[in-house]
């Protein structure tokens, strides 16, 4: 399998629970990717504005504050259309309709291999594009 | 001459019989014979006293000679007549004494009888029979009228009792009861309705009831009620009804139509039952189930992180297994303490105790001081985890690994620039000299990178050679974020 340079782009990880955020970041960085991290949608949007190397948004849905992960995903889809959006949540009964087009959903708890495999494919697609 | 007492007893039907008092000669006997021949039962009295007795026995009519009215017992007769019930007007047929002029006393005696017909003598048989027949007939009419009247009175009493019974039932039950015309116009509410709502009687007649509902429930209630009126289907709804206190309480409303033989709706009868407590308990149960589900998921997520982090930093599977078991044990203990406290909040001493309990075997190591502040469940679990990591580390390498080692745990509320801050400290002393680790394990990373986030503050580890120090500084409200 041919890998695109995994360091040429970054993944924005959004999770309000500090330990889960730490673990998600560890998981992704252990696989050789660069990350930015945010604990709220507001911080996430500020990071999107500031860093144009973010190609992937990996966000939780259930977050405190005025904006949850679904709202965040929709805003990112509108403002930065090429961004690949990965959404995760422990909420039961969530349907694809509530997510922006093209967003992928991973129910919590997710498998690390599944997430890393997906990121590797995204890296490969970005390399070809 | 027959004894009147016996004669009276012999009369099977006194109301259809004539009492005769004609003391002179055989007049009484002749009259009785004449009447009997005409098919009219008659009984002969010997005095006004006996006539009075027969009046009391409800004889149908009296045939009496004018001169007999002047005899002894006139007072007894007068009393017997006065004692008649209102409906009774006993007819007398009086045989006149033939005098051209009558004394005032004689006239008064005649008037006292009330209903008297005067027949002149000599007696004419047909005249006598016809007079008494019509007297008895009039008397029978009186009895019939009385019977009708008594029936009506009985019905009225029954109606009154039935109404009283209905009111007693309708107003003693715990439910509100109402009733409407077939078109849905409310025209009855029991006392409970007025006691509950506190509105004046009659003020919710017609369609005004809808205004007593919570504004958010009014439209739905209208729709359901209209649907029931159109289809005749039973009405059932849960809504909030304004209580006299001004608050709204949950109520179960139900109504059924009463139909005639052809199925046409005559009236609607409805009830409202106060289900506020049940409803609130149910809401609380749902809330609690939701919270429990959330907690279990959260705990599993934490276990997931903890296992993955332990494996990430472990040198061997044996080491990893011991660390995972110890950490899960700590989480179970913390969970017990969180459950035993209220659902949303526990006390900080519980969180501290949960972490230190497994390390308490060496008494005298710990000094713990601080106010027993409320702390949110997430913060409590995070603090417990951090303290567990510190205590485990201290048991292996720090103050808890030697006999004279000490750990001072202290927390307080500090005021800085008008803001209240929560300050927590862990301070080891008397242990082996401390060196900063070359590699960060789960414990130190958890404290340095994650712990502060749970409190909206900052956590710090200081590897002072005299003893490890940990401090957490956060806004006071961060304890229960």
UniProtKB/TrEMBL annotation, chain A:
Which UniProt keyword terms apply here? Phosphoprotein
Phosphoprotein found in the keyword field: yes
A Pfam entry, by short name: Response_reg
**Does the keyword Phosphoprotein feature in the UniProt annotation?**
yes
**Where would I find the Response regulatory domain in this sequence?**
10-123
The record's annotation in InterPro entries points to: Bact_response_regulator (IPR050595), CheY-like_superfamily (IPR011006), Sig_transdc_resp-reg_receiver (IPR001789)
* Residues with 4-aspartylphosphate modification: 60
**Name of the featured protein:** Response regulatory domain-containing protein
TrEMBL record, chain B:
Task: Provide the reaction this enzyme catalyses.
Answer: ATP + protein L-histidine = ADP + protein N-phospho-L-histidine
Q: What is the E.C. number?
A: 2.7.13.3
Ranges of residues in domain PAC: 235-287
- The region annotated as signal peptide is none
Sorted UniProt keywords? ATP-binding, Chromophore, Flavoprotein, FMN, Kinase, Nucleotide-binding, Phosphoprotein, Photoreceptor protein, Receptor, Repeat, Sensory transduction, Transferase, Virulence
- The answer to keyword Transferase applying to this record is yes
Q: Which residue windows are transmembrane per the record?
A: none
Q: Does the keyword Kinase apply?
A: yes
Q: Please give the Pfam families that the UniProt record associates with this protein.
A: HWE_HK, PAS_3
Q: What is this protein called?
A: histidine kinase
């Amino acid at each position: 399998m041919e890998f695109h340079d995994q360091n040429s782009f970054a993944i924005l990880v959004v999770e309000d629970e500090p330990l889960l955020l730490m673990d998600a970041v560890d998981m992704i960085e252990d696989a050789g990717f660069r990350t930015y991290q945010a604990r709220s949608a507001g911080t996430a949007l500020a990071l999107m504005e500031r860093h144009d190397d973010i190609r992937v948004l990996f966000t939780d849905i259930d977050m405190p504050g005025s904006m949850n992960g679904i709202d965040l995903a929709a805003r990112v889809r509108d403002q930065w259309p090429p961004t690949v959006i990965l959404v995760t949540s422990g909420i039961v009964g969530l349907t694809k309709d509530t997510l922006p087009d093209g967003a992928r959903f991973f129910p919590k708890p997710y498998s690390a291999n599944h997430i890393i495999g997906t990121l590797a494919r995204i890296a490969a697609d970005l390399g070809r594009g | 001459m027959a004894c009147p007492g016996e004669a009276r007893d012999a009369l099977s039907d006194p109301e259809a019989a004539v009492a005769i008092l004609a003391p002179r000669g055989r007049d009484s006997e002749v009259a009785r014979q004449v009447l009997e021949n005409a098919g009219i039962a008659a009984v002969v009295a010997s005095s006004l006293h006996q006539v009075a007795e027969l009046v009391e026995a409800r004889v149908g009519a009296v045939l009496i000679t004018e001169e007999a009215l002047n005899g002894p017992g006139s007072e007894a007769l007068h009393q017997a007549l006065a004692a008649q019930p209102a409906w009774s007007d006993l007819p007398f047929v009086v045989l006149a004494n033939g005098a051209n002029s009558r004394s005032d006393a004689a006239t008064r005696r005649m008037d006292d009888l009330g209903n008297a017909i005067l027949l002149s003598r000599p007696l004419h048989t047909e005249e006598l029979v016809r007079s008494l027949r019509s007297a008895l007939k009039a008397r029978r009419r009186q009895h019939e009228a009385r019977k009708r009247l008594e029936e009506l009175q009985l019905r009225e009493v029954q109606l009154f009792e039935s109404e009283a019974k209905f009111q007693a039932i309708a107003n003693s039950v715990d439910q509100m009861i109402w009733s409407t015309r077939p078109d849905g116009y409310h025209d009855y509410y029991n006392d409970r309705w007025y006691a509950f709502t506190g509105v004046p009687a009659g003020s919710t007649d017609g369609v005004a009831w809808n205004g007593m509902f919570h504004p958010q429930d009014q439209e739905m209630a209208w729709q359901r009620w209209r649907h029931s009126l159109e289809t005749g289907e039973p009405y059932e709804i849960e809504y909030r009804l304004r209580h006299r206190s001004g608050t709204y309480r949950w109520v179960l409303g139900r109504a059924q139509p009463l139909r005639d033989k052809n199925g046409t709706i005559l009236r609607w009868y409805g009830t409202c039952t106060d289900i506020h407590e049940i409803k609130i308990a149910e809401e609380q149960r749902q809330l609690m189930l939701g919270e429990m589900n959330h907690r279990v998921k959260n705990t599993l997520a934490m276990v997931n992180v903890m296992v993955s982090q332990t494996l990430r930093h472990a040198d061997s599977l044996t080491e990893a297994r011991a660390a995972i078991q110890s950490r899960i044990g700590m989480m179970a203990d913390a969970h017990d303490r969180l459950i035993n406290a209220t659902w949303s909040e526990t006390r900080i001493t519980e969180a501290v105790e949960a972490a230190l309990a497994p390390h308490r075997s060496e008494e005298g190591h710990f000094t713990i001081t601080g106010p027993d502040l409320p702390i949110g469940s997430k913060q409590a679990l995070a603090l417990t985890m951090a303290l567990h990591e510190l205590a485990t580390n201290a048991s292996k390498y720090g103050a808890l690994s030697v006999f004279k080692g000490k750990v001072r745990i202290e927390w307080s509320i500090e005021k800085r620039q008008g803001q209240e801050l929560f300050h927590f400290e862990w301070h080891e002393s008397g242990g082996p000299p401390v060196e900063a680790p070359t590699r960060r394990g789960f414990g130190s990373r958890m404290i340095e990178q994650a712990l502060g986030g749970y409190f909206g503050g900052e956590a710090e580890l200081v590897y002072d050679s005299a003893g490890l120090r940990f401090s957490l500084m956060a806004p006071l409200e961060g304890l229960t974020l």
